[in-house]
Amino acid sequence: MPLLPSRPAAVLTVAALAVPALLPILSAAAAWAVPAGDVWQHQLQHVLPRVAGNTLLLLALVALTTALLGTALAWLVAAHEFPGRRFFAWALLLPLAVPGYVLAVVFAGALDFAGPLQSWLRAAVSPAVQLPPVRSLGGAAIVLSLCLYPYVYLLARVAFETAGARTLEAAQTLGLDRGAAFRRALLPLARPAVAAGVGLVCMETLSDFGVVAALNVDTFTTAIYRAWYGMFSLSAALQMAGVLALFALAAAWIERRFRGARGFAGARPSTELPRQRLTGFGGLAASAAAGAVLAVAFVLPMAQLLAWSVEHAATDLDARYWAFAGRSVALAASGALVIVVAALALGYALRLEHRRWLRALGRFATVGYAIPGTVLAVGLFVPVAALGGWLQERFDAALGAAAPQVFLQGTLLTMFVAYLARFLAVGSGAVESGLERIHRNLDEAAALLGARGMARLRRLHLPLLRGSLLAAAVLAFVDLMKELPITLMTRPFGFETLAVRVFEMAAEGEWERAALPSVLIVAAGILPVVLLARRVTHVA
Amino acid sequence: MWLELRGAARRFGDRRALDDVSFALEQGEIGCLLGPSGCGKTTALRCIAGLETLDGGMILSRGQVLGGPGVHVAPHLRGIGFVFQDHALFPHLTARGNVEFGLRHLDRAERRARADEMLGLVGLADHAGAYPAQLSGGQQQRVAIARALAPRPATLLLDEPFSSLDVALRERLVGELRSLLKSLGATALVVTHDQLEAFALADRVGLMRDGRLEQWGTPYDLYHRPVSRFAAGFVGQASFLPACCSGTGELQTELGPLRQGHATSAACGGEVDVLLRPDDVVHDDRSPLRARVVERVFRGAEFLYTLELPSGRRVLSLVPSHHDHRIGESIGVRLATDHVVTFPPLRGVTTDVAP
Prior knowledge:
The complex is a heterodimer of chains A (540) and B (355). Chain A has 540 residues and is mainly alpha-helical.
């Protein structure tokens, strides 16, 4: 095989798409090489130890809680029959639709000292009753666990359902009762799936900014934000981002190692797992347990959100509100378009130029899904500002005093590059699985009949990929609607979206007024969760 | 020559997938490349189509070089039609849409007319609006052939056209394919691993082994005048019997004397092995030569007996099935050989029945 690629355009495409994810990592690494002076000394001595401790403690709490909660719910739903099981099987996925910061806002507002629950407790029980504060590390751990347990639940349930029946039967023929079979055979079987789920949970927890910001916990993401906006120290923010990026890549590595367990796309069980019928008190207890999780994580918060929305609709449902919504939708739609086009370019380039090293480079293009938005935002600021400066010099040299002011870092450019870095994996996953289903013989048949290059893409691949591209666009759109830190940190001055509005209301403690913008975000997020739930709930 | 390969070579790493392969087809001939899997026959086809590049040698179509030193004509400019093993029909297009795919140079009405004409020729005029998933395997194959022939290629290439079809269908479809190609006057090259398919389809058959063309000739030549033990064994069943060459040109075997028909072994001096086809060994109760039945396979119209001679040598014999002999019985045999083919003896091999 010739060493030189036969299609340089394909190689260039892959290389160009790897840049947005690699640049921030390089910026953060470079920041470590340059001494940053007093601010950094302060960070190293006072901020970093506390921030790292908080982050790791939060990570451990959330990982442990989601692992236990997710696995237990999965076992309950997959291996038992109880009233409402079919409903809970998919409904327990619904918390995926709620961004963490929305749930944090509801919890903070509802469980506040002056909030409805505590007021009622003081009136009904005793004036001395006081709940532990929600705005704490423990509170953040609870909120994040309620948002993220579905990852573990979903993967573990599919593992139990697809491979569980045979294993359970084999274990029972070897003399184990159902409980022992679960502990000794099924749980080890589902361990890779649980590990992959916890890996995803860790990635999400590390990149979370909205929950910890709303609940006032100092972690890496809030420290990066504060270093930049509070102390105006880009280098301190970058160095913090570098440390966080290391943690995030480690979590991504864990998730990728166990990803083989994630066979839920179309995986069908050979035999259905025999479900144990829970009757009487047992059945009610099972329903109550599943119902309690669903109520706390989804139903009650949504009810609270709607109640607040109705309360404030008269004053807040105005032209400004629709402007936030319009901006959110416009941003998410155009971002999704960019992501789908990039994902298609990446997938097609890798298909045309079939080489191992190019595939490895392509993997860099999608590594951004593991990097927290805060890291991407500060990491891209430096190169984009440098590009702006370089362009300014060129313009000045060419046009003199008539040269226009170039100021790229406050434009949507940084935002879109960061979106692309973070969510390209979302689009490319869908596009690549679609491309894989198109046999290469079809490409050759089309080439022999005269359709090559763009003509082949238009006449063969695009018609066959329509469904995959739509799925990629929907997933990217919803992720962008929910996205907070990138939008917040790279937006032009005064540019507000729904998510930014929620953050600002939360920052001012105006929990109830955050409800109205939250409702639209959740509404958009529910669609793909329902689709996902339907796809994996074929058994239930 | 309509299509010609001259010393064509293709390497994948260290492996020579195609090694100095030369053959030619006249206009309107159907050629067939036959061989076990991995012998390079599909690589040959892909090189002719331009889906692979040559590492050496040349490929010519109607005197024009398609591939050779420094030349690689793009696949779609070669005037080659290709029918893939799995048909590779475009699932999002109807039968008509598939056939129209390669006709972009025509305007809409012409395209439509040509596609309908082609579908009519392959007997699918009524299925023009059907999608591939709605067609049977045989129908899909005919759409694939119509699609490949629609742009009027100089040569049609077919890669294992019957392997994805029902065994029951194959025999009928092989005959149909031959009459279709002949009625269209198409020049075609087919790849298969099944010698019966090759014999039924082709005017010329090339036997391939390890990237090399072992033999190129008519099906009759391949069966009756194989150039090597491999060719003899791959094309039909074969057993080998040691013989001694006498000065008069007669071969002395355990089953009697044989006259050498042609010059396969001009250098006759001493020991040789004679190729015996199962139909060369005839059951004859009056024959003084006896052989013991050691294995038998019932094939409907006949039995295929494996017979052991007094020397311990084994030969195959095809006997009409009303001669029902049990294993262990001794039966009379004699030779009835039209084409005597000999090979130098193999050393150190005692049982000599090729499959």
